[in-house]
């Protein structure tokens, strides 16, 4: 017996298309959650970067993945900003090289 379908979220799919996608994923996953195997309602999971539907997860796992993907995105943005700042710093240091080459360094 199939579980009752939780219609939220639909990821742009409606009616028969949503139900068909859900049923195919349900059959492919043998009615089990893709990660935790908890006995809770299933919902469609999708990649937040591409929008591609990946499988059926419980709400807890789906929210955890969403948080993780958002965190990785923020971390990557911060890392790229740091790399750009470092490159700018090194370029400025190179330009100042002649000026500071004649300044004695005290120990």
What does this entry show, briefly?
This protein is mainly alpha-helical and 107 residues long. The chain has three helices and two strands, in the order αββαα. The radius of gyration is 25 Å and the shape is rod-shaped.
Explained architecture:
- By secondary structure, the chain is mainly alpha-helical.
- The N terminus is likely disordered.
Strand order of the largest sheet: 1-2
Measure the end-to-end span.
Answer: 80 Å
Q: What Rg, in angstroms, do the CA atoms define?
A: 25 Å
Largest sheet: 2 strands, antiparallel
Q: Layout of helices and strands, plus pairs?
A:
Blueprint: H1 15-28, E1 43-46, E2 53-57, H2 59-95, H3 97-101
Antiparallel strand pairs: 1-2
What are its keywords?
mainly alpha; disordered N terminus; two-stranded antiparallel sheet; 107 residues; 2 strands; His-Me finger endonuclease fold; 52% helix; rod-shaped
